[in-house]
TrEMBL record:
Keyword Cytoplasm: no
Annotated spans, Uridylyltransferase: 1-389
Inhibition and activation profile: Uridylyltransferase (UTase) activity is inhibited by glutamine, while glutamine activates uridylyl-removing (UR) activity.
Protein name: Bifunctional uridylyltransferase/uridylyl-removing enzyme
Organism of provenance: Methylosinus trichosporium (strain ATCC 35070 / NCIMB 11131 / UNIQEM 75 / OB3b)
Length: 946
């Protein structure tokens, strides 16, 4: 059921030796009643002191929340906190009801029709509340309602609203509840969790009895299908993976709502009332019930603390909150991980356990035929199942799932653990939960002997290089703990997050997605951006080395040393065990050690510079390595997160591959460059069919070869038409806006007379207008025009809204270039709202003359922030340097910007003292933000990260 406990120390943070006693709400209604009686006694007859009553209730509510927070701060339990807040709300509502019926709407001789029941529903109905949760109430009224009941309900609601509480409410009769429950699964779920607070117990019994008799005895299959479909939609909105690095504690996959969905289904199908009854119903074992309760406890503690710290119903565990929660919960730096990363590893292990519990419930429902049967993955229904027989005696197929013959299957032969997953892969089968349970109980059988077994290693390599369902089966092996036991180094990175804004997933999830991306490329289902990688993949001689290199490329993350070098050592150790030859082992180790090389050079170096290509070719050395590195790099970037592998990055990688291919093949790069430039020109000529030959030839002369090689065809077409409109303009200035659907970014192109501060002004205008630059492509025409394309993040989901915003940014840039705006002041005002305080990255400046034949390369890396590019380019201009090309790359919160610069005479920066001055002044750009962060830490703000 759970991940290998040897990998699991993150679950046990440094907790206080004993938990404090939770506060108690019992008796608050009575004490408030006495205080309200006294207030009313002092008031004038017929004029209840409503304002004073509300103030008294507000104070009681505030005191209760303060007690809950103090309890949680002292190491208290999350569930106890949530139950106390629910009890507190019960007492407050009871006191409000007493006040209303005794002093506001008094019914001296209430009739049968003047009955009222207040019922808690939703999360409040479960008897748990987070500090910022909505209060969901059902006011149950008789069939024949009276003005008295409606007035009481209205008065109660107004007081709750005066207390600034978010109230979800409905007023219905029992018949109305039943009628709406038949038509709406959401209302059915609401009533399923109804809990009596006060009023007529008879009305409440009538509701629950009728609901069970008339609604719950209906089609359970339809209810289960609706709840699971609802869960799929919710998870899709919050993020389809449970391993997102900023997870939603409530709505995300593996979050609290998943546990709630399990229990709703269990209550509806198995007629249980409390989680403890799930064992008697045969749904959970005692160990699985304990796991359910541990998951619930941890998630509630995180959620309650998150609400308290933010002062609102914040459900997303964002980067700026993670360090604070880690500190509050007593985590410490250890084993190469910061306390934040250890806290988040605990979170993801819990989310994984929630997923395991979900699988158990779904399988049990299938057994009862309350849920449609599903294959291992929905796409598998389209795959042709192979007809091989299963190994006799050990495995069987039950409802399209592999089962084990008995509990001793893995005891008799531990290799059967690998065979189980191999069978699932070969035959496109899911694995029965009973088999999964048997695997987790047999994890101790995955020892040194099994890891040395040739057949076990052959089976693993077959799964890894399968043409069937590699990613799906590897993920199942990971979730059961098998992958981490069979490759212990992989076990170290299970559920490990990297505290940065670049990676969307945990390390293990990223590696599995990367392998999945490679499998998709092989099957023709890869992303369009990786078309070149797909084309060369069949020509790679050793695909198993490529697959293993991809699986291992980040396996050494979380260690103090460089993970690329440590990963290469792991490859050298693992490959012989898997039957690799020494040459194959060297290839895998080289891929792991250099897996960042191609991406780094493509994005941060000038690919039109001959020296860049020669240096890269010297590192790669062979065509086979170049092919493998391109495919690995594409898959690696694609697996980082949605939209990360965009058309521009793919184009840069393609150009680097083509340029290096020529050098490694013994050809002449300059000659090949000429042929590709000529092809690019003809391609554009065909796309601009309305242009005459003379006009096009004159236009083509305006661009250097670097432009023809780097820009893709759609951009070339847009640029050509834009420059055509500006022909012969006295002071050329124009901007265009396009929504880049491939990358999810906004593309803004600026054409203006080139000058030393142009890029700085554009960057400053973007920062001041709230446009977060994620990339910039800089070109200069032969006739002195700058053609700069800036990419910035979207702010709105709808294209029309985003287009309007982007147009405003473009107008702001034009005003800035005309000198109508004071850029420095505008950037300073915007930077006050920066989010970068959650991170701490030491800045680094590298000045190198070996990267280019004609320019000095200044590579600046450090914490990204609002206005950073403006400040850097402004500082470079103040140093009297010309920027020939700029390569702006953002990896989450880390900016890595490379500038190819020359002095005013067009030469390189060779003087050591001059280089030292450049470094010093560029480092000063980062100083204010670091000082600001230090002050925030001293004031008790975001903790530092190692």
């Amino acid at each position: 059921m759970h991940v290998t406990r040897a990998l699991d120390e993150q679950r046990h943070q440094a907790s206080p030796p004993s938990h404090p006693r939770p506060p108690a709400a019992a008796g608050l209604r009575a004490s408030l009643g006495g205080a309200i009686d006294a207030l009313c006694a002092e008031a004038k007859p017929g004029a209840p002191p409503r304002a004073a009553v509300v103030e008294r209730l507000r104070a009681a509510l505030a005191d209760g929340h303060a007690a809950a927070r103090a309890y949680l701060d002292a190491g208290g339990k999350g569930m106890a906190c949530a139950r106390y807040l629910s009890d507190l709300e019960d007492e407050i509502i009871g006191a409000i009801y007493d006040y209303v019926v005794r002093f506001v709407y008094v019914a001296d001789n209430p009739t049968f029709a003047e009955r009222l029941t207040i019922v808690a529903v939703g999360g409040y109905g479960r008897g748990t509340l987070a500090p910022g949760s909505d209060i969901d109430l059902l006011f149950l009224l008789p069939y024949k309602q009276t003005p008295w009941g409606e007035s009481v309900v209205e008065a109660i609601l107004y007081i709750l609203w005066d207390l600034r509480q978010k109230v979800g409410h409905s007023s219905r009769s029992v018949a109305e509840c039943l009628r709406q429950a038949r038509a709406d699964v959401t209302i059915r779920t609401t009533i399923l969790e109804a809990r009596f607070i006060l009023g007529s117990a008879e009305l409440y019994r009538e509701l629950t009895t009728s609901f069970e008799r008339e609604i719950m005895r209906g089609d359970t299959r339809a209810f289960v299908a609706a709840k699971l479909a609802e869960r799929d939609q919710r998870v899709s909105r919050a993020g389809s993976s449970r391993y997102l690095v900023e997870p939603n504690v409530k709505e995300g996959k593996g979050g609290l709502r998943d546990l709630h969905t399990l229990f709703w289904i269990a209550k509806y199908v198995y007629r249980v009332r409390e989680p403890e009854e799930l064992v008697a119903a045969g749904l959970f074992s005692s160990a699985e019930l304990a796991l359910f309760q541990r998951c619930e406890e941890f998630l509630w503690r995180v959620r309650c603390m998150l609400h308290f710290l933010t002062g609102r119903a914040e459900e997303r565990l964002s980067f700026d909150m993670q360090p604070t929660l880690a500190a509050r919960f007593g985590y410490h730096d250890r084993a190469g991980l910061s306390r934040t990363e250890r806290f988040m590893k605990h979170y993801f292990l819990v989310a994984k356990d929630v997923g395991d519990l979900t699988a158990i419930v779904c399988a049990a429902l299938e057994e009862r035929e309350a849920k449609p049967r599903a294959m291992l993955d929905r796409v598998l229904g389209r795959l042709k199942r192979r007809a091989q027989k299963l190994p006799a005696g050990d495995f069987s197929v039950d409802h399209d799932r592999v089962r084990v013959a008995d509990e001793q299957v893995f005891e008799r032969d531990p290799v059967n653990i690998l065979r189980l997953f191999s069978i699932a892969d070969r035959h496109a089968l899911a694995i029965h939960p009973d088999a999964v349970r048997a695997v987790t109980r047999a994890l101790r059988r995955i020892d040194a002997n099994l890891r040395a077994d040739k057949e076990a290693n052959r089976l693993f390599l077959d799964i890894l290089t399968s043409h069937n369902m590699t990613e799906i089966v590897l993920r199942r092996m990971n979730e059961t703990g098998v992958l981490g036991r069979f490759i212990p180094e992989f076990g170290r990175i299970v559920a490990m997050m990297q505290f940065n804004m670049y990676h969307h997933y945990t390390v293990d999830e990223h590696l599995l997605r990367a392998v999945g991306a490679l499998a998709a490329l092989e099957s023709g289902r890869g992303p369009a951006q990786a078309a070149l990688a797909a084309d060369i993949l069949p020509t790679i001689a050793n695909r198993k080395a490529l697959y293993l290199g991809l699986l291992l490329h980040d396996i050494a993350k979380g260690r103090k040393e460089d993970h690329s070098h440590a990963g290469a050592r792991i490859a050298h150790s693992l490959c012989p065990r898997l039957g690799f030859t020494p040459a194959e082992t060297d290839t895998v180790a080289w891929l792991v050690q250099h897996h960042l090389l191609m991406s780094s050079i493509a994005q941060s170096r000038d690919l039109s510079d001959r020296r860049t290509i020669e240096n890269f070719a010297a590192s790669v050395q062979t065509m086979e390595r170049l092919k493998m590195l391109l495919v690995l790099t594409m898959c690696d970037i694609y697996a980082v997160g949605p939209g990360v592998l965009d058309a521009w990055k793919a184009q840069l990688l393609n150009v680097l591959y083509w340029e290096t291919e020529v050098v490694l093949g013994g050809g002449h790069s300059a000659a090949d460059r000429k042929s590709r430039v000529a092809f690019a020109k003809e391609e554009l000529r065909a796309a601009l069919g309305e242009w005459g030959a003379a006009e096009f030839d004159a236009y083509a002369q305006r661009h250097y070869s670097a432009y023809w090689l780097k820009a893709d065809l759609p951009r070339k077409v847009r640029h050509a038409r834009l420059l055509r409109e500006l022909n012969n303009a006295q002071a050329p200035l124009a901007t265009t806006v396009d929504l880049d659907t491939k990358s999810g970014a906004v593309e803004l192109t600026v054409v203006a007379q080139d000058h030393r501060r142009l890029l700085s002004i554009i960057a400053g205008a973007c920062a001041a207008s709230g446009a977060n630059i994620v990339d910039a492509h800089i070109f200069t025409t032969a006739d002195g025009l700058a053609l700069d394309t800036i990419f910035f993040s979207r702010a709105f989901p709808l294209d029309e809204d985003e287009t309007r915003r982007a147009r405003r940014v473009a107008d702001y840039i034009e005003k800035a270039l005309r000198g109508e705006i004071a850029i420095s002041e505008a950037v300073a005002a915007r930077s006050a709202k920066d989010r970068s305080l959650a991170f701490d990255i030491a800045p680094d400046i590298v000045i190198d003359n070996s990267f280019s034949n004609v320019a000095t390369v200044i590579e600046v890396s450090g914490l990204d922030r609002v206005g950073l590019l403006f400040d850097l380019t402004n500082a470079i201009s103040n140093l009297n340097l010309n920027i020939g090309s700029a390569h702006i790359v953002t990896f989450g919160e880390r900016a890595v910007d490379s500038f190819y610069v020359t002095d005013l005479t067009g030469g390189k920066i060779l003087s050591a003292s001059r280089q030292a001055t450049i470094k010093r002044q560029l480092l000063e750009v980062f100083a204010p933000a670091r000082e600001k962060r230090a002050r925030a830490r001293e004031a008790g703000g975001t903790p530092a990260q190692p």
